[in-house]
Design a protein that fits this description.
Strands 6-7-8-3-9-10 form a six-stranded mixed beta sheet, sandwiched between helices. Strands 2-1-4-5 form a four-stranded antiparallel beta sheet, covered by helices on one side. The chain folds into two domains: 314 residues, ABC transporter type 1, transmembrane domain (ABC transporter transmembrane region fold, Up-down Bundle); 238 residues, Rossmann fold, CATH 3.40.50. The mean pLDDT is 86. The chain is elongated, with a radius of gyration of 34 Å. The protein has 23 helices and ten strands. 65% of the residues lie in helices and 10% in strands. It starts with a helix and ends with a helix. The structure holds adenosine-5'-diphosphate (ADP). Adenosine-5'-diphosphate (ADP) binds next to helix 13.
């Protein structure tokens, strides 16, 4: 329970203080409720006292009861106020915190998480965690404190009765521990299976074209079938917890029965007054409800636990830290010194002890076999992750010391899989320069050879990217991304040349767009077409994570046994 509480406080963020205060109110309200029941004893004593009933002697107790009820009501009102006023605010704040975390974490770590998985965390898990924080937590306090306080009162009535109850409670503890452990494992499994299912559904929707082409779009798509089956299995196995909860409930009822039986025995032997016996029965009955509810809610608490854990893991992701002292680039050349980078959970180096300098305003083409490390290298230049060894400098400043805004404004990136957000095409291009005028957007589109295509659409620049999606070819989407980068006008351009075969007109247009983008910039391009490669100032042949050859086309072709020469000969 303490772990759950700590997780809630950590996930509640800015509302942690309000949550603590509300839980305190709930605890005091629960104590007042128990104290109210305790007043039954003096009332019973007066009712059962020999002689006529003196109402006046009961008045102070009734007034006390009224006072407790009013105070409890006020505290409960505060509790309800927190639940209704904060629920949506906690949800919103938690989602924004998680979104900030996604923005701050290295792209490499982000890429390792499936989008469906993240959608589950930001969607279902947040909803459930917010419910847990706003209402479940106060209920838990109620369900724990009321029975504990009643137990204490029964001890005060007669230590033997309290002893029987305490022994019963001690017997229930290991059963409940087992139930919680089991439920925790079950819900971790259910949560993982749910996240995998969401991820698979996203992939299934996104991969429809490919699946249909291969005739596997039915639910018989192997991946989907497997994850749904796993989800079903996980739910099915979770049924086992119910058995432990039923055992605990039985134990609890037997304990209650034993306590009342002992009470009756003590009364019959004259060791327990009638008023105390009646009060005991009343208190035991009051204990049953919160305990039964608490036991049946174990699964709900474990579900909250699983959601909170997943959120906490994401919140604990390390930032891509800007180290001090911060540095600003002086110029826009890159220098890589003994850079080695390995993806998480991989043993092989994707980039291995690579040293390379990329002069300002030069065009460097990266060529080499697939899997050689070209894409990873361009990603490292935009600090998608930090290399484990060596360092990369931009204009003399180590990327790790460069404030993120400075790096982001210096570098424009055009990778192969063009991402268009669900907004107008104008907004998609304007992403390169927030606040750009339509004239600027059109100018960039013209330079990217995409203006005439957009103008032909019925709604022109107002066409939403989603609607335009099917109307735009791969080359056209690429040109929109290039227009975005042209508008950004960053001094450094990182480009992954499209490998998809385009028709010659499209290829020509993309080529022209790229030429407009890269003029007078420091350009690193993962190049596939010989014409792009030949036009480069320098060509770096990248294989096994290292730079094996570096020079102009003519210089590299002069090596009869050179890798580059062999690559060119093979292409020809
Ligand atoms: P290239 O662009 O030259 O084809 P990459 O940079 O894509 O090469 O890949 C270099 C190496 O890193 C390859 O062995 C590849 O399998 C590995 N790699 C690339 N991306 C990832 C990733 N996200 N996770 C793990 N390994 C990766």
């Amino acid at each position: 329970m303490m772990r759950l509480y700590r997780m809630m406080i950590s996930v509640a963020g800015e509302f942690a203080g309000a949550l603590r205060r509300t839980l305190f109110c709930s605890a005091v309200a629960a104590l007042m409720q128990a104290a109210g029941w305790a007043i039954a004893l003096p009332l019973f004593q007066r009712v059962l006292a020999p002689g006529p009933l003196v109402l006046g002697s009961m008045l102070p107790w009734l007034a006390g009861l009224l006072g407790l009820m009013v105070a409890e009501g006020v505290l409960r009102w505060r509790e309800a106020d927190f639940i209704y006023r904060y629920w949506h605010r906690v949800t919103e704040a938690m989602r924004l915190r998680l979104a900030r975390r996604l923005r701050a974490m290295p792209l490499e770590r982000l890429a390792q998480r499936k989008s469906g998985d993240l959608a589950t965390i930001l969607g279902n898990n947040v909803t459930f965690a917010a419910t847990a924080i706003s209402s479940l937590a106060t209920l838990a306090v109620q369900l724990l404190i009321v029975p504990a306080a009643l137990l204490l009162l029964i001890f005060v009535l007669d230590w033997r009765l309290g002893g029987v109850l305490a022994i019963g409670a001690l017997l229930i503890v290991p059963v409940m521990r087992q139930a919680r452990r089991r439920a925790n494992n079950d819900f971790q499994r259910i949560d993982r299976a749910d996240a995998q299912a969401s991820a698979a559904i996203v992939e299934y929707v996104q991969g429809q074209a490919m699946l249909r082409a291969s005739g596997r779009s039915g639910t018989s798509a192997p991946c989907l079938e497997q994850v749904f089956h796993r989800q079903h299995e996980a739910q099915h196995q979770a049924g086992g917890t119910v058995r432990y909860i039923a055992h605990a409930q039985l134990l609890m009822q037997l304990t209650m029965l034993a306590t009342v039986a002992l009470g009756l025995m003590l009364y019959s032997e004259g060791e327990l007054p009638l008023a105390s016996l009646l009060c005991l029965i009343l208190l035991v009955v009051q204990m049953v409800e919160p305990l039964t509810l608490g036991l049946s809610m174990v699964r709900l608490f474990e579900l909250a636990d699983a959601s909170l854990q997943r959120i906490n893991v994401l919140l604990a992701e390390a930032d891509l830290i800007t180290q001090v002292p911060q540095q600003q680039p002086e110029g826009f050349d890159f220098s890589l010194e003994n850079v080695s980078f390995r993806y998480e959970n991989q043993t092989a180096w994707a980039v291995n002890n690579l040293t390379l300098s990329i002069p300002e305003k030069s065009l460097t083409a990266l060529v080499g076999p697939s899997g050689g490390g070209k894409t990873t290298l361009t990603r490292l230049l935009s600090r998608f992750a930090d290399p484990q060894q060596g360092g990369i400098r931009l204009g003399g400043a180590d990327l790790r010391h460069l404030p993120p805004e400075s790096l982001l404004s210096s570098v424009a990136v055009v990778f192969q899989d063009v991402w268009l957000m669900d907004d107008s095409l104008a907004s998609n291009i304007a992403l390169g320069k927030p606040g750009a005028t339509l004239a600027e957007v059109e100018d960039a589109a013209r330079k990217a050879h995409i203006h005439h295509v957009i103008s032909r659409l019925p709604q022109g620049y107002d066409t939403r990217a989603g609607e335009a999606g099917s109307a735009l070819s791969g080359g056209e989407r690429q040109r929109i991304a290039i227009a975005r980068a042209i508008l950004k006008d960053a001094p450094v351009v990182l480009l992954d040349e499209p490998t998809a075969s385009l028709d010659s007109e499209s290829e020509y247009q993309v080529q022209k767009a790229i030429e407009a983008l890269v003029a007078d910039k420091t350009v690193v391009i993962v190049a596939h077409r010989l014409s792009t490669i030949r036009a480069a100032d320098r060509i770096a042949y990248i294989a096994n994570g290292g730079c094996l050859e570096l020079g102009s086309h003519e210089q590299l072709m002069a090596h009869p046994e050179g890798h580059y020469r062999q690559l060119v000969m093979a292409q020809r």
